[in-house]
Amino acid sequence: MSVLVVVEHDRGQMADATLEAFAFAGSIASQLGVNVEALLIGADAGALAELCAAHGAGTVHHAADAALTDYGPDAYGAVVATAANELSPSAIVASGSDRGNEVLAFAAADLDLPFVANCLDVKTADEWEMTRVQWGGSLNEDARLASSMPILSSAPHAIEAAEPVSGASATVQVLDVSLPEAAVATIIQDRIVLSEGVTLATAPVVIGGGRGVGSAEGFEVLEALAAKLGGVVGCSRAVTNNGWRPHSDQVGQTGTRIAPQLYIACGISGAIQHWVGAKAAKKILAVNTDPAANMVVKADYAIIGDLFEVLPAITDS
Fold first, then answer.
1. Alpha helices in the chain (DSSP H)
2. Whose CB has fewer CB within 10 Å in the chain, the N or C terminal residue?
3. Which CATH number is 17's domain given?
4. pTM of the model
């Protein structure tokens, strides 16, 4: 028996969120007294076996069917279902990213088993009990699960990834899969690069702008500060609704969830949807003229003032 981690990757590049899923799986495995194993999907995923071993996987199962040339939620879900039937793990775990939740949802449907998303903590003493994020992070729910094979995802940025173990190794086993034609109906045919280098999701510093920036041109002062600090610019939903920035720059429940070392929120009121996307930042500095704004109240630090005076002063210092 084992806890099986479904590894999220993009063309052979492991997602950072998967490292959190390994830590989550490790805590469950230690309670059950079983091992952690990993499931790699796609021909380009084989090179990740060593990294899986470094994060606790004793065995790595690799499905490299010719149809798995790129990501497809139905195909990946079918592979997870096949692995579940052949390996009979104690539980199946993935990261609570959009892709991780999507794959587990397809797998759960194939297996006719319940799926619990965005878990913070799991206890397995007498029965499966978990705490999970609900309502976009505005509350946590305690739940009990009756299932022959729990399928769980870990809440993004809520679990610290463990340090890799140097020199660790894993046994690699080929997982033979036979995918029905219907399972490859959805595939990625093309990709458009919106940005290169540091991204909103990975940047160590994010400068966010809200309605208080006032216009698309107003973001020039944010861009200048981001360039000086080696960060990127994000925004609130109000900004994208006004057409000042593209949706790819949006931080929030319906945008990108960030976890930088520093988030500087400029002219942002701090609605719950935005806070959900930003609260994993290690430190938050709010720049706002309203001392009662939700973002100011919740931030670690605040500057009460005009962002068009404050940001240039920081940039020029």
1. 16-32, 49-54, 73-87, 98-111, 220-229, 237-241, 272-278, 294-298, 307-316
2. C
3. 3.40.50.620
4. 0.74
Residue 204: CB atoms within 10 A of its CB come to 14
pLDDT in tens, 198-249: 788 889 999 999 999 999 999 999 999 999 999 999 999 999 999 999 998 9
Examine residue 192 and state whether it is found in any structural domain, yes or no.
no
CA–CA distance, 118 with 287 (Å, rounded to integer): 31
Strands 128-134 and 115-123: antiparallel
CATH code of the domain in which 233 resides: 3.40.50.1220
The range of the structural domain enclosing residue 226 comes to 205-316
Residues 130 and 265 grouped into a single domain? no
Cα Rg for the chain, rounded, in angstroms? 21
- Domain membership of residue 165 (yes or no) is yes
The Cα–Cα gap between 125 and 271 comes to 38
